[in-house]
Write a structure and sequence with these properties.
Layout: E1 21-25, E2 30-34, E3 41-45, H1 56-74, E4 79-85, H2 90-99, H3 103-120, E5 128-131, H4 136-148, E6 152-155, E7 158-161, H5 177-186, E8 202-207, E9 222-224, H6 228-238, E10 242-248, H7 252-266, E11 273-279, E12 282-284, E13 287-288, H8 299-304, H9 309-317, E14 325-326, H10 329-345, H11 351-366, H12 371-383, H13 392-403
Length: 407
């Protein structure tokens, strides 16, 4: 599956390399320095289920990992970035059925809308953008590996993963048993299904149902469950021990916990991810922004209304990626005023102040992607004394390369 065109990223290499990035690792429960030592930095971020348009919560997640991608590049690392698209799943099929639309047409339309939003926001595209439909063979291969090792079992034509077969199960989110049961029930699990060996066991392969898409497999015709597609895609495209598995905090459990355990058990002795990094949730009108509540602010609608995508990007960057926060109309106003101030100051940027600014912004972003601090540093620079203009190009390259905003 194609991604979207990549923006040009200026190089700051003539000023040396940016410092190594320290990020909060959910599994370690503390910040860790992410310094890839053997080949490219490998990043896997869970993608959209394309049954509706990209909202600000989605954008916040993908912008956070865009900042990581840019930070790694500026630190001198090649980056191998993979993102999936869950282009067959219950919510997509339910929406298509509700609207009387072919599920493939719905998915194609929303994937294309997502591409346009990401291109407008100047998000660096993944090297591999992989739909579940095109990865069915990879999923079947992993389910077969789990079956052959005795870690999967059948319930009325469906196949489940035995989560307790992974001794490290629970080590990503560190939730209590009670919390895992609650979250699984809230997030698509079927804890009470008769025939399951453990309430937390998750669906690997859903047997064929009338009116639903299905594919042939050794388990019988059907389609992937949830979680296993990310296990299979990430390992196939990035190998063992990817550097970062990323997504929103709502994916810690069950999605990232389950996908990691499936990979561990299917390939004994492997490490699925070295670190797990999660972004906060974005609220609107007093509640978490979600499709089920309908309290969504869509990126495409803001763009169609004439909002500068740079304002959207800066409005999101003003909030730390790990924080939970609420979107308001003031976010765009503040972002617009901020960008205008930077642009006014740019022609008179002095070289010394610009060079110091590069070092300070790099340090802020190396410290758990502290974009709010980086914005404050640029605000202070813009409000400072005028120079001779010799640093204008450097500031322009800095803001573009590290924040993804063109001055």
């Amino acid at each position: 599956m194609r991604a979207w065109p990549a923006p040009t990223v200026p190089s700051l290499e003539h000023l040396g390399r940016a410092p190594a990035v320290r990020l909060h690792d959910t599994a370690a429960r503390e910040p860790r320095t992410l310094e890839p030592l053997d080949g490219p930095a490998r990043l896997y971020v869970c993608g959209i289920t394309p049954y509706d348009a990209t909202h600000i919560g989605h954008a916040a997640t993908y912008l956070a990992f865009d900042l990581l991608n840019r930070a790694w590049r500026d630190a001198g690392h090649e980056v191998r970035y993979v993102q999936n698209v869950t282009d067959v799943d219950d919510p997509l099929l339910e929406r298509a059925d509700r609207d009387g639309e072919d599920w493939r047409a719905l998915a194609d339309r929303e994937i294309e809308r997502f591409r346009r939003d990401c291109e407008a926001l100047r998000i660096l595209p993944p090297d591999a953008y992989v739909g579940v439909v095109e990865a069915i063979d990879l999923v079947v291969e992993m389910v077969e590996a789990l079956r052959e090792a005795g870690h999967a079992y059948e319930v009325d034509g469906d196949w489940y993963f035995s989560v307790r077969s992974d001794p490290s199960f629970g080590s990503v989110g560190h939730y209590s048993e009670e919390e895992m049961l609650r979250l699984a029930a809230e997030r698509g699990g079927d804890n009470d299904r008769p025939g399951k060996k453990d309430p937390l066991d998750c669906l690997l392969w859903r047997g064929e149902r009338p009116g639903e898409p299905s594919w042939p497999s050794p388990m019988g015709a059907g389609r992937p469950g949830w979680h296993v597609e990310c296990s299979a895609i990430a390992r196939a495209h990035l190998g063992d021990a990817i550097d970062v598995q990323g997504g929103g905090s709502d994916l810690v459990f069950p999605h990232h916990e389950m996908s990691a355990s499936e990979a561990h058990v299917a390939h004994p002795g492997s490490t699925f991810a070295k670190s797990y990094v999660h972004g906060g949730m974005v609220a609107y009108q007093g509640a978490k922004m979600s499709k089920s509540l309908g309290n969504l602010v869509f990126v495409s609608r803001l763009r169609e209304a004439g909002v500068d995508p740079a304002h959207i990007r800066l409005a999101i960057a003003a909030h730390h990626y790990r924080s939970d926060w609420e979107w308001t109309d003031d976010d765009l106003r503040i972002a617009g005023e901020r960008l205008a101030a930077w642009r006014r100051a740019l022609p008179t940027a002095g070289l010394d102040s610009a060079t110091a600014l590069v070092a300070d912004v790099r340090a802020a972003l190396a410290d758990d992607l502290d974009a709010p601090r980086a914005l404050e540093l640029l605000d202070a620079w813009a409000a400072g004394p005028a120079g001779d203009g010799s640093g204008a190009g450097l500031v322009r390259d800095l803001v573009d390369a590290r924040l993804g905003v063109a001055l």
